[in-house]
Design brief:
- The complex is a heterodimer of chains A (355) and B (254).
- Chain A is α+β, with helices and mostly antiparallel strands and 355 residues long.
- Chain A is 62% helix and 14% strand.
- A 5-stranded mixed sheet of chain A has the order 2-4-5-7-6.
- In chain B, the strands form 4 sheets. Chain B has a 5-stranded parallel sheet with strand order 2-1-3-4-5, with helices on both faces. In chain B, strands 10-9-8-12-11 form a 5-stranded antiparallel sheet.
- Classes of the chains: A alpha+beta (355), B alpha/beta (254).
- At the A-B interface, helix 8 and helix 10 of A face helix 1 of B.
């Protein structure tokens, strides 16, 4: 909600604001020497009751010159000119009040007594205008900070959302269906391998569930999971799938968000290898250079294959997860050249604290 | 047993995974009337094998390298009963729109395959509509072809639509000009037009469909008619209505 347009709190201010204003004006007039307390109050009260509404003008001049987006000189010019106008109107109201009051017995001659001190009202008008400016600028700042807070909240909710979606997408049902179909085929051709495949699949599923509960895991564990995944796919694709893994010793202990790379490797198989008649290679590399962990997932691809409509979903999830966790310190870069598709993931190297 | 029970069914199994083919092969074993004449590991092989063996029944995977199961169906143009076998359920609608006999999900079970076989036998001998028109009808609105599959004898060529310069109607065929070559495809120019993005391809003449990006300039040619000069140097006639369409599209693009 924008407090600048919130009517009720503004109206409440006008119910009481005239009181201190009138007290100040009356005091200044009294101390000038020429006017009695009655004279001072007689001018100050009507002046401030009417005049306070003029100060609303400050709301619009403040909006016209918001401090963040306006040059200092323009802010000053705007408010100095506005203050002059406001003060002149205050002066006119005060003079009119004195003129009207002079008709009444106890105030007789008040206009003459007031005239030499009219400057006080002018100065007060200016002063009150500047007070009002300060008040409205404060409200503006408050509204802006509320808005910034709301935006920050929204961003963090979006990041969390991306994280959840990424986790849900980990186990692709088609991967399961195809694996089960392979097992079904093996049961009669090669029962021993069918059993082996069942075990591989169970290991993989158990590991996915276990790792999925954790926030960060050592890269070594993620690689173990990927090896299992590729071993299962290898049963399906046979000689069409070859894999190469080279993970630096130094990189193995680095922590990565759990199941971060799994969707990338799955993409490498479904969008790369599965679209090649003669298959190809999935390469995984990880190095730790100057406290930055760089992981590369590379696969052969058919450059003529039409782009998959759903492709990029996994990549988008990985990017969103990394951004939510590491901000600008992590990058994901995908490049396609000739017959190779490569995703480079770079993130700050973090280690498990030694207990 | 259905009335076709004793008739031999020449069958081809198409799947890029050897294990997936072996499941189907095994489940078909108890049926002596099924004669497996070929097994193919990709779409190209399938198109060739169908031309060679003229099968009655086709078990067809959807997601394969190069040519999808739907591409294969578009190219073979023969009366063959098709049973799709895939792990993906999202193509089911499309499969029935192209008049597939059945749609089996992996892992494939015995009962489900038996039921599909029964339906295939009942359907054999029925005339099926020509496939290309069907696959155009099966395309969701707003989705356009990304490539065109053409078969010349047993050779299959894939033309990405961005590489198609223009198409010319020739009786029941269209000649597709791409990268200096012309490919003949048995399809009407209207159905080809319907499968392509109307923001990129314009029918400039009753017999010509042109890739808008190839149009270099338009020249007047005789009375009431014009010529489109393509960046490849080809000169195509532009009819009065075709010129209107072309101008509307160019103005839209600014």
């Amino acid at each position: 909600m924008d407090p600048l347009t919130e009517r009720s709190s503004e109206l409440r201010i006008y119910r009481y604001a005239w009181l201190p204003l009138a007290a100040v004006v009356a005091y200044l007039l009294k101390t000038s020497g020429n006017l009695s307390w009655l004279d001072s109050a007689g001018i100050a009260v009507p002046l401030c009751v009417i005049g306070q509404f003029e100060l609303v003008a400050a709301k619009y001049t403040c909006r016209f010159a918001p401090p963040q987006r306006t040059a200092m000189a323009q802010i000053l010019a705007t408010h100095v000119v506005a203050a002059q106008v406001i003060a002149l109107i205050w002066l006119a109201i005060a003079k009119a009040t004195a003129y009207v009051l002079a008709e009444h017995g106890s105030f007789a001659g008040i206009d003459q007594r007031f005239a030499p001190h009219a400057g006080i009202v002018y100065v007060a008008g200016c002063l009150f205008y500047f007070l009002a400016v300060a008040y409205y600028y404060m409200l503006q700042a408050q509204a802006a900070s509320h808005e910034a807070e709301a935006r920050a909240m929204e961003t963090s909710i979006l990041a969390r959302d991306a994280e959840l979606k990424a986790l849900k997408a980990q186990i692709n049902p088609h991967f399961l269906f195809n694996s089960l179909n392979s097992i079904s085929a093996l049961t009669s051709i090669d029962p021993a391998r069918a059993r082996e495949m069942c075990l591989l699949l169970a290991d993989f599923l158990r590991m996915t569930l276990r790792l999925g509960e954790k926030v960060q895991i050592p890269l070594e564990q993620e690689m173990e999971l990927l090896e299992k995944f590729l071993a299962i796919e290898k049963v399906r694709f046979a000689s069409r799938l070859t894999m190469e893994m080279s993970v630096e010793e130094e990189a193995k202990r680095c922590l990565v968000p759990a199941l971060l790379l799994q969707p990338l490797v799955e993409n490498a198989v479904t969008h790369g290898i599965a679209k090649l008649t003669d298959g190809g290679t999935v390469k995984l590399q990880a190095v730790n250079h100057g406290n930055q962990l760089t992981i590369t997932v590379e696969n052969s691809m058919d450059p003529d294959a039409p782009a998959d409509r759903k492709g990029g979903m996994g990549l988008k999830n990985v990017t969103a997860r990394l951004e939510a966790r590491y901000g600008k310190e992590a990058t994901v870069r995908a490049t396609a050249e000739e017959e190779t598709f490569r995703v480079n993931v770079s993130l700050p190297a973090e280690y498990e604290e030694k207990v | 047993m259905s009335k076709n029970g004793d008739k031999t069914l020449r069958t081809i199994i198409v799947d890029d995974e050897e294990l997936a083919r072996s499941v189907v092969r095994e489940l078909l074993k108890p049926h002596p009337e099924i004669q497996i004449v070929a097994e193919c590991a990709n779409g190209f092989e399938a198109v060739k094998a169908v031309a060679e063996h003229k099968p009655d029944l086709l078990f067809l995977d959807v997601q394969m390298p190069k040519l999808t199961g739907f591409d294969v169906l578009e190219l073979i143009r023969t009366d063959v009963a098709v049973i799709f076998v895939t792990a993906y359920d999202e193509f089911a609608m499309k499969a029935f729109e192209v008049h597939a006999v059945d749609y089996l999900l992996k892992p494939v079970g015995k009962e489900r395959l038996e039921a599909a076989l029964k339906r295939a036998k009942a359907r054999l001998g029925e005339k099926m509509p020509a496939p290309p028109e069907l696959s155009a009808a099966a395309r969701a609105p707003g989705q356009y072809a990304e490539r065109i599959v053409v078969k010349d004898g047993t050779k299959v060529t894939l033309i990405p639509v961005a590489k198609l310069d223009y198409a010319e109607a020739q009786d029941d065929y269209v000649a597709l000009a791409s990268e200096g070559k012309k490919h003949l495809k048995q399809q009407t120019i209207a159905s080809l037009e319907a499968s392509l993005d109307p923001a990129k391809f314009v029918r400039i003449h009753r017999s010509y469909l042109v890739n808008l990006e190839r149009v270099a300039r338009i020249e007047p040619y005789g009375k009431n008619s014009r010529l489109a000069i393509l960046s490849t140097g080809a000169r195509l006639p532009v009819s009065q209505t075709g010129y209107g369409r072309l101008r509307a599209l160019l103005e839209e693009k600014g």
